[in-house]
Amino acid sequence: MEKSCSLLIHFDKGTPALANEIKEALEGNDVPAKIDAMKKAVMLLLNGESLPQLFITIIRYVLPSEDHTIQKLLLLYLEIIEKTDSKGRVLPEMILICQNLRNNLQHPNEYLRGVTLRFLCRLNEVDIIEPLIPSIMSNLEHRHPFVRRNAILAVMSIYKLPQGEQLLVDAPEKIENVLTTEQDQPAKRNAFLMLFQCAQERAINYLLTHVDRVSDWGELLQMVVLDLIRKVCRTNKAEKGRYIKIIISLLTAPSAAVTYECAGTLVSLSSAPTAIRAAANTYCQLLQSQSDNNVKLIVLDRLNELKSSHKDIMVDMIMDVLRVLSSPNLDIRRKTLDIVLELITPRNINEVVLTLKKEVVKTQSGELEKNGEYRQMLIQAIHSCAIKFPEVASTVVHLLMDFLGDNNVASAIDVVVFVREIIETNPKLRVSIVTRLLDTFYQIRAARVCSCALWIIGEYCLSLSEVESGIATIKQCLGDLPFYSVSEESEATDSSKKTPQANSITTVSSRRPAILADGTYATQSAASETVFSPATVVQGSLTTGNLRSLLLTGDFFLGAVVACTLTKLILRLEEVQPSKIEVNKATANALLIMVSMLQLGQSSVLPHPIDNDSYDRIVLCIRLLCNTGDEVRQIWLSSCRESFVKMLSDKQLRESVEIKAKAQTSFSQPDDLIDFYHLKSRRGMSQLELEDAVQDDLKHATGEFVKDENDANKLNRVLQLTGFSDPVYAEAFVTVHHYDIVLDVTVINRTKETLQNLCLELATMGDLKLVERPQNYTLAPESSKQIKANIKVSSTETGVIFGNIVYETSNVLERTVVVLNDIHIDIMDYISPAMCSDAAFRTMWAEFEWENKVAVNTVIQDEKEFLDHIIKSTNMKCLTAPSALEDECGFLAANLYAKSAFGEDALVNLSIEKQSDGKLSGYIRIRSKTQGIALSLGDKITLKQKGGS
């Protein structure tokens, strides 16, 4: 079994040093060789070797050495070696060690005294410590502060031993005298810590006696004071009024660590608005004064906790929190925006949006590398603000539309989605948005942004001028027709047959709006050269129309969107244009564009022909323009927008449900005691204490103090580890809390004999790690013992804990082993349902490399029932809108999402079909960034999908 030591040293087990070599080096006079030999001896002892032959050599040749490094290594050696025999008695040779320690405690060198006193803090053998007590106490008055500091720590550790109070009867009194006269701040801190842990009343008396001087104490002592206040107030809540003033005075301390701890202590002790406001102000000041990004992230987490429990107070701090956006770190900015978006109210929305607009303008400078990502975050934040408060949309929508042609495609997509939602929810802005969109449409370079912008143009160009402008804009961005020359194509084909490297070049022109010096618009023509070759993709220059450039790269999905948009505009033109000639002319031009796109898609100038879906869509548009009925007109001009409106309403409904789910609902019992502060005597109570009394009464009344714990759920977590017929019965209560697993194991001796050296040995499989080493216990006949084991979790993965109980009895010479049942750690303990946008889901689905495909195998015959069962079994959130899951069609597809306690994402896509025999078939696909989630979640679904519990 490995031994514990206060120093961890790397040791290569592949090349163990021989004890004889170490012995020879220790007997020599070469100091560096002795140091190296002592290091080897310590490493061997840490790795399980006993080396009994070295003890006398070290006593003879190492103890007399005056070298400080050798003396420190000697103390490490003495810390590791066994000092007692099998019966717990101190070995006789330890008398030599005791004499050496006494000499060191009286040595003229301060360093040797200090490190020896520090070593005594780790000794548990009373027989060794007892002769050293006078020397230890004499060092409390040493002239050097280093010695005094360690002497105080040694007194504290000895006093905390089981027999420590008998060894040092008057230790608290002496330490209190030292605290009164001590000038060295670290030594003073150690003295106060000793009183805090060993004689709490003396520490409290000293603190209350020097209340006015606490703000002048050093940082280390102030931190211990805060620990004392937290401990006292937890045990006796009625005492917190005496300490609140001390905490308030420490909020202005020069140390950032003290102010941070002080704010946390204030929040934990008081819920009064004055206290919460003071803590929030302190956190905001730390955000501005600290340059470390890790500190800012931690402080933002504390502000996020305050936002959850004291939202009304945090609303007033929103502008202070927004100042953190000056940090260049994206994680800090993202966390800041997340906090701010939940604190927006009608009172502060204008200030918040104005700040976000300024930040958007700053991103145009291009000085920082990640300006595009930051701009995308700001656009999403502004989008959320405009949805919650439509009246601010008019102040931001035109600014954001300048970014439709942004090089960062994600930002441009966010802008166009924002514009699409605002134009529906804010009818007053429709005309100005459409006009601005038509003016800036030629700047758009991304196909997805173009598709969404074309949909907006087709749906919201309602007046005659808007319809005509929309058709004209699309024609300008497409350029001159046809998209290629038939003669040029044939020449290119002929020349390629003769010489494979030959290319044929034709010149095409396009037009786009240009702004003249007087501010008016004019049409400017641009020429570009396009290379036609059967072996290469036709490239469109950036100077041509954006739609033309994208079409010439083979994006015929965009071509189908163009055809649909033109069809809607022509159908609407028939309603608003009285002149049939103009309508027929526009229809002919639209048909010419569509036919040209079909010819381009079926020609040989592009390496890939047009896909069937796009071809069918364009052909459908052509047929509609040639022969349109009233029912078809109604579908194209009304049903599309109605579906969009329904989608927005579903989205708002889901968001409202999420907000209600986040709201904490608590209940109080009818017979709960409420202590009305109005009936109390207010004499001697500060305003803060009065506010705190009010808040406590409110919490009692609303049931916030009531813990929602179900005893039945507790019993479900009790696992039987051994059988009823085993001589030792064991069961474990498993508590899972984020990164920690606590096993509370109850061991019962069912025999009539005393079990000696009983040890609970555990091992783990998966990303689990044991924190503590097992200890040996002695168990009396028919008695029980509670043993706790802490296990750290590093990732979301199904893990297994296994082990055994080993013990000895007086009758049997060999050790008896009882094998324990395995404990399976469920992945569901780490996964919680979460929300994300459809775009974010698709992005993560494309990026994540691990996928687990599980075939559907269930006795459930209803699609929705099976979906609900999977959601319940996996503890995930269904992102698909309820309206999309309505009706019976025999098919169902849904996306599920969850986040782990470690911030990992879990994505699930469920696609099922109902067969003719009534059974369900299909697949459940799981994707994640790590293999553990994908495999563990797949195993869980395989186990649960049949409909079992």
Automatic annotation (TrEMBL):
| Superkingdom of origin | Eukaryota
Q: Name one GO cellular component term.
A: Golgi membrane
Q: Which UniProt keywords apply?
A: Cytoplasm, Cytoplasmic vesicle, ER-Golgi transport, Golgi apparatus, Membrane, Protein transport, Repeat, Transport
InterPro entries per the UniProt record, alphabetical: ARM-like (IPR011989), ARM-type_fold (IPR016024), Clathrin/coatomer_adapt-like_N (IPR002553), Coatomer_bsu_C (IPR011710), COPB1 (IPR016460), COPB1_appendage_platform_dom (IPR029446)
Molecular function (GO) terms for this protein are: structural molecule activity
* Gene Ontology process terms (BP): endoplasmic reticulum to Golgi vesicle-mediated transport; intra-Golgi vesicle-mediated transport; intracellular protein transport
All copies of the Coatomer beta subunit appendage platform domain together span 814-941
Location within or outside the cell: Cytoplasm; Golgi apparatus membrane; Cytoplasmic vesicle, COPI-coated vesicle membrane
Major place of residence: cytoplasm
Indicate the segments forming the Clathrin/coatomer adaptor adaptin-like N-terminal domain, all copies: 21-466
Q: Does the keyword Membrane apply?
A: yes
Membrane disposition: Peripheral membrane protein
- According to the entry, every stretch annotated as the Coatomer beta subunit C-terminal domain falls at 670-808
Subunit (UniProt)? Oligomeric complex that consists of at least the alpha, beta, beta', gamma, delta, epsilon and zeta subunits.
Q: Summarize the protein's role.
A: The coatomer is a cytosolic protein complex that binds to dilysine motifs and reversibly associates with Golgi non-clathrin-coated vesicles, which further mediate biosynthetic protein transport from the ER, via the Golgi up to the trans Golgi network. Coatomer complex is required for budding from Golgi membranes, and is essential for the retrograde Golgi-to-ER transport of dilysine-tagged proteins.
Question: Which protein, by its recorded name, is this?
Answer: Coatomer subunit beta
Q: Which gene encodes it?
A: LOC107774878
